[in-house]
Amino acid sequence: MQENKSDNPTIKRPTMEIAIVILNWNGAEMMRKYLPNVVKHSVNATVFVADNASTDDSLSVLANEFPTVRTIVLEKNWGFADGYNKALEQIDAEYYLLLNSDVRVEDGWLDAMLDYMRKNNDVAACQPKLLSDLSPTLFEYAGACGGFIDRYGYPYCRGRILEELEEDHGQYNTVMELLWASGACLLIRSTDYWKAGGLDGRFFAHNEEIDLCWRLNIMGRRVVCIPQSKVYHLGGGTLPKGNPQKTYLNFRNNLTMLYKNLPDNQLQRVMLVRWCLDYLAAFQTLILKRDIGGFKAIFRARHDFQKWKKDFANDRKKIQGCRQTTNDVGRSSFSLLWQYYIKGIRKYSLLPKY
After folding, report:
1. pLDDT tens digits for 23-38?
2. Does residue 47 contact residue 20 with C-beta atoms inside 8 Å?
3. Rounded distance between C-alpha atoms, residue 152 and residue 277, angstroms
């Protein structure tokens, strides 16, 4: 975890209020589709594209078709997490807005989030309401109306439980405190980003924004959803659902996130239960879905987590040293799998209240 450089009164104020930063890897066509919309509706922000060593014509598209967009060229593909870290190190702004390249926005989309952040200094980060760009009446998987995790580390959202997406009828239109905000559209104070240590580059991709927001919560900083702002997310990313590498990263990184952030008095029990649940998921993947690649990915994820867990011991010590409370906001006491598969609950509003 890095020192908050803003604590030094001799350091000048940022040169811009908000920098919208889009991480790109071989996404030339995606930029052609979505970037004009972002530029048009973000006149009070500075738009950056950080290119993660693309091998397509992304850089020429940016130079020729988007001359007002600032470009940061990274020398290799650092992944989602460290790609953002490397890019944000080069940007001097009060707020960072991490935005996926497949997000459609509307006029005034930033206003409610920025207004809330300006008025609430105890809030480190926020997200808008995320709706599906393909089916705009549905919440979008990657963040819906704000994120939580259950007792054993399984993420869910207002508007999305596991694979079940709700229709948006305004039922979650209140501002709400979260455990995590979606990395698809994440507004965060630069000082909080660096004080928490940024995204964990070792994750490469998946669960990295949950890990960051959980660390912010532990430090006593708030994360919220501002549904008065909304965007439309295509979703899917570079790896489709069911891809063995995506399965591997999700399991490995989720276990690592739990190891780093769980309170001392809960770590051993939660990890024991996860051992059982993960192997149950592996055999379910093999027997019911006949997915040999997914089966192997879960086994490999657990093996690699055990192998590299020692590398995170110092991180865990530092994070727990910052802990303000053992009751992390947005982490529920129930099992999401029990609620979904045994009790048949498919909507956030029907879940127990922690």
Report:
1. 999 999 999 999 999 9
2. yes
3. 9
- Determine the straight-line distance between the first and last CA of the chain, rounded to whole angstroms: 29
In three-state secondary structure terms, 155 is strand
Q: Residue 251 burial by CB count (10 A; 0-12/13-18/19+): exposed, middle or buried?
A: buried
Rounded Cα distance between 141 and 161, Å, is 9
pLDDT above 70 covers a percentage of the chain that reads 95
Helix ranges restricted to H, 66-207: 79-88, 111-119, 190-195
Q: What pLDDT, in 10s, does the model give residues 243-283?
A: 999 999 999 999 999 999 999 999 999 999 999 999 999 99
CA distances from 290 to 244, 294, 295 (A): 13, 9, 9
Tens of pLDDT, residue by residue over 284-341, are 999 998 999 999 999 999 999 999 999 999 999 999 999 988 889 999 999 999 999 9
Average pLDDT, the chain: 94
Q: Examine the pLDDT at 162 and tell me if it is beyond 70.
A: yes
Cβ neighbours for 100, distance < 8 A, ≥ 6 positions apart: 22, 23, 142, 183, 184, 185, 233, 237
Which amino acid, residue 174? Answer: T
Q: Of the candidates 20, 81, 76, which has an alpha carbon nearest to the alpha carbon of residue 53?
A: 76
Transcribe 193-231 into DSSP letters. Answer: HHHTT-S-GGG-SSSHHHHHHHHHHHTT-EEEEEEEEEE
What residues contact residue 150 under an 8 Å CB cut-off, 6+ apart? 156, 331, 332, 334, 335, 336, 337
Alpha-carbon distance 28 to 54, whole Å? 9
pTM of the model: 0.93
Mean pLDDT, rounded, for 202-221: 97
- Written as six digits, the tokens of 228 are 């008065």
CA atoms within 13 A on the CB side of 121: 0
Cβ atoms within 10 Å of 173's Cβ, excluding its own: 14
47, 38 in Cβ contact below 8 A?
Answer: yes
Distance, CA of 179 to CA of 327 (rounded, Å): 11
Which pair of structure tokens corresponds to residue 141? Answer: 């998987």
Q: Which two tokens stand for residue 337?
A: 């799998």
Grouping H, G, I as helix, E, B as strand and the rest as coil, residue 329 is coil
